[in-house]
């Protein structure tokens, strides 16, 4: 190789190494935050519904602090190179999406949309090409929520909340109907989608147990209708 | 339209997933198209490589320099054909799309760089530079169809050593072939040293370095065989040429094209997995 070519290669290499190092730094920060979030959200399984709002409030500031990280990342990534680097932070991002979705579900019982998640994490649309929230990562977050809710259905009953499993069941079925519409390739998203049916089965079993013993309010309603 | 922040019914969830479906389908279709184009590039590039091998081994009557120039000139048209395929991919690779689909285009691009660098070596006896490869991927105004990544450049070049090994072994039995083989030998040795320094940064390159080492060893063994036989005779080079032609013709039967190293790209394997 002639000198000029070697220099060219080295300059490209150095620039990329610098970007990589900077991203790594931010991903470490990002991971710290998402781990804190996971830690807080782990407590939903042992928190009674009265205390739930307070628990969610404690998660919010951490969730919002992710905005600093996304802003720092967007600063580092050169224009149009988003996909080149995204694998470095994609796991952290999916965890953050999961946290945002779970907090919203426990708060309002609904699904936070992709743009709303992006907004929660401070991802701005003008960063397109540098940092964005792709559908794939959002959907991974949604599946993680379903995984988590199948556990919550069980633990809510243990804590005496018989209504939650039924709400979860309806919510998860809606999401499953949504996922069924997608033409998924043979990738991790597809595999995780395939595993959703086990979560649904688990939730259904809880709903069945609760209904059978006439513990849940909604399972009492049809009975009333029958007697009318 | 999507001003609602929270979806709380199936009727609101389904349209959103319909959008996702469109988005994912669009992505997958584009990816498939690019993989197909990349396969076409691979095919054409392989043909160019075979063409170059044929020219340099068949036209041995010509003088050394001429063969190289002649071969490169005949490959020009083929290269233009491949370059027009790249031009066709351009609209699919604008802006951030390139960084998304780069790995789907890589296999073909690397094969092309292998062919291009082989032609370049035959013509100039030197390694094609990063800038020269990028220039070959530009339109008439000099605008790049897409940016060349360092990885594709280096991995393409790394395959060149295998072609040069075949070239050296095939020509060693011909007139002036020993000199050619010895040139190739030192060239490949330099390539290997150049790449070695860069292996920490590219995982794939590390694997290919192993193949390069094997190729180099084959050339060295062939050169050794020639040197040993030369020492036994005190003859002028021209007469040795005759002698060597007889000796090595046996060796090339089972050492050059026969046990070609496995060069299936790991990337190709990845893509195959995705299809399953």
Architecture blueprint of SSEs:
The complex is a heterodimer of chains A (228) and B (276).
Chain A: H1 3-42, H2 52-76, H3 82-85, H4 90-108, E1 111-112, H5 114-120, H6 135-158, H7 164-180, H8 188-212, H9 217-227
Helix pairs in contact in A: 1-2, 1-4, 2-4, 4-6, 6-7, 6-8, 7-8
Chain B: E1 6-7, H1 10-58, H2 64-89, H3 97-124, H4 130-136, H5 150-171, H6 177-196, H7 203-232, H8 237-255, H9 266-275
A few lines on this structure:
Chain A: GO terms for molecular function: RNA binding; sequence-specific DNA binding; single-stranded DNA binding. The complex is a heterodimer of chains A (228) and B (276). With 228 residues, chain A is mainly α.
Can you describe what's shown?
The complex is a heterodimer of chains A (228) and B (276). Chain A is an all-alpha fold and 228 residues long. Chain A has a single domain, classed as Methane Monooxygenase Hydroxylase, Chain G, domain 1 (Up-down Bundle). Chain A has 9 helices and 1 strand; from the N terminus they run ααααβααααα. Chain A has helices spanning 3-42, 52-76, 82-85, 90-108, 114-120, 135-158, 164-180, 188-212, 217-227, and one strand spanning 111-112. In chain A, α2 (52-76) runs antiparallel to α4 (90-108) and α6 runs parallel beside α8. The radius of gyration of chain A is 22 Å and the shape is elongated. Chain B has helices at residues 10-58, 64-89, 97-124, 130-136, 150-171, 177-196, 203-232, 237-255, 266-275; one strand at residues 6-7. Chain B has 276 residues and is mainly α. Chain B is elongated. Residues 256-276 of chain B have low confidence and may be disordered. Chain B is built from 9 helices and 1 strand; from the N terminus they run βααααααααα. The longest helix of chain B has 49 residues, at 10-58. The A-B interface holds A 1-2, 4-6, 8-9, 12-13, 16-17, 80-84, 104, 108-116, 128-129, 135-136, 139, 173-175, 177-179, 181-187 and B 2, 4-10, 13-14, 16-18, 20-21, 23-25, 28, 95-96, 98-100, 102, 126-127, 129-131, 150, 154, 190-191, 194, 198, 201, 274-276. β1 of chain A pairs antiparallel with β1 of chain B, so a sheet runs across the interface.
């Amino acid at each position: 190789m002639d000198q000029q070519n070697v220099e060219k290669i080295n300059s490209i290499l150095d620039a990329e190494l610098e970007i990589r190092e900077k991203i790594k730094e931010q991903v470490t920060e990002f991971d710290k935050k998402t781990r804190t979030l996971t830690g807080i959200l782990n407590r939903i399984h042992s928190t009674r519904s009265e205390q739930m709002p307070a628990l969610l409030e404690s998660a919010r500031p951490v969730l919002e602090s992710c905005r600093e990280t996304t802003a720092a990342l967007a600063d580092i990534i050169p224009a149009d190179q988003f996909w080149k680097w995204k694998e470095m932070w994609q796991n952290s991002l999916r965890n953050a999406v999961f946290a945002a979705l779970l907090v919203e579900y426990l708060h309002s019982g609904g699904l936070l949309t992709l743009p709303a998640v992006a907004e929660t994490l401070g991802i701005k649309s003008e960063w397109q090409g540098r940092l964005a929230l792709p559908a794939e990562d959002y959907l991974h977050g949604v599946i993680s929520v379903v995984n988590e809710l199948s556990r919550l259905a069980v633990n809510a009953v243990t804590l005496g909340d018989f209504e939650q499993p039924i709400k979860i069941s309806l919510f998860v079925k809606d999401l499953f109907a949504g996922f069924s519409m997608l033409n998924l390739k043979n990738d991790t998203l597809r595999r995780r989608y395939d595993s959703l049916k086990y979560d649904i089965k688990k939730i259904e079993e809880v709903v069945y147990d609760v209904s059978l013993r006439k513990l849940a309010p909604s399972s009492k309603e049809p009975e009333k209708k029958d007697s009318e | 339209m999507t001003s609602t922040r929270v979806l709380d019914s199936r009727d609101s969830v389904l349209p959103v997933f319909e959008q996702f479906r469109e988005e994912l389908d669009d992505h997958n279709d584009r990816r498939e198209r690019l993989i197909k184009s990349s396969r076409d590039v691979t095919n054409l590039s392989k043909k160019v490589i075979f063409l170059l091998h044929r020219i340099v081994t068949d036209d041995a009557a010509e003088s050394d320099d001429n063969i190289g120039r002649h071969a490169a000139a005949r490959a020009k048209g083929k290269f233009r054909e491949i370059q027009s395929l790249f031009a066709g991919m351009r609209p699919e690779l604008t802006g951030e799309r390139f960084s998304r689909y780069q790995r789907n285009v890589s296999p073909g691009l690397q094969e092309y760089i292998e062919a291009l660098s082989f032609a370049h070596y035959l013509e100039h006896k030197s390694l094609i530079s990063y800038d020269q490869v990028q220039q070959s991927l530009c339109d008439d105004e000099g605008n790049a169809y897409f940016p060349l990544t360092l990885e594709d450049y280096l991995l393409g070049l790394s395959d060149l050593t295998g072609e040069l090994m075949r070239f050296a072994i095939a020509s060693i039995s011909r007139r002036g072939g020993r000199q050619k083989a010895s040139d190739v030998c030192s060239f490949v040795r330099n390539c290997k040293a150049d790449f070695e320094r860069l292996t920490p940064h590219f995982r794939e390159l590390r694997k290919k370095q192993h193949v390069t080492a094997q190729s180099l060893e084959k050339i060295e063994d062939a050169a050794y065989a020639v040197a040993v036989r030369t020492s036994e005779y005190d003859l002028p080079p021209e007469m040795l040429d005759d002698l060597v032609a007889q000796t090595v013709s046996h060796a090339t039967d089972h050492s050059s094209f026969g046990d070609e190293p496995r060069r299936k790209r790991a990337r190709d394997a990845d893509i195959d997995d995705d299809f399953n």
